[in-house]
Amino acid sequence: MNDHELIINRLYKLLIDRDMSMNRLATLSGVKQSTISSLIQRPTGVPKADTLRLLCEGLGISVQDFFDFPPYNQRPNGSSKKEEESKWEKLGNALTADEKERVRKILSNEI
After folding, report:
1. Of 17, 30, 73, 88, whose CB has the highest number of CB atoms within 10 Å?
2. How confident is the model at residue 33, as a pLDDT?
3. Segment 71-105, tens digit of pLDDT
4. In sequence order, what are the beta bridge partners of 80?
5. Dist CA 66 CA 49 (whole Å)
């Protein structure tokens, strides 16, 4: 799938999840309904950043939340932020209190 298809599919999913029509999204976001329709019907291209931000506001989410799906939420090594946070949490659970304190000091440049 190309970026256009991924973004449009995400927009549809968010609309369905919220039981929201494109007309309602247009009202809430301040983006003209014709602009939303044009965006969806265009075979290529992606929305401008300011349009996407307004659509996200209408959906009640951040732009970061909008892009929280593969491939956009993946790191260059292929893992997602959530997967990396889980690894750090497991590591943190395996450390002793003294080890955690040393890591905290290293990360905050206290050493």
Report:
1. 73
2. 94
3. 888 777 766 667 666 766 767 677 788 887 887 78
4. 74
5. 12
Rounded to 10 deg, the angle between the 3-17 and 33-41 helix axes is 130
Please report which residue ranges of 1-111 form alpha helices under DSSP H.
Answer: 3-17, 22-29, 33-41, 49-59, 63-66, 81-94, 97-107
pLDDT at 24 over 80: yes
Token pair, residue 53, equals: 């931000």
Q: Label residues 76-103 b or e (16+ Cβ within 10 Å = b).
A: eeeebeeeeeeeeeeeeeeeeeeeeeee
**Cβ–Cβ < 8 Å for 44, 100:** no
* Contacts of residue 2, Cβ cutoff 8 Å, sequence gap at least 6: 44
Identity at 100, one-letter amino acid code = K
pLDDT in tens, 55-67: 999 999 999 999 9
Tokens of 60: 């009640």
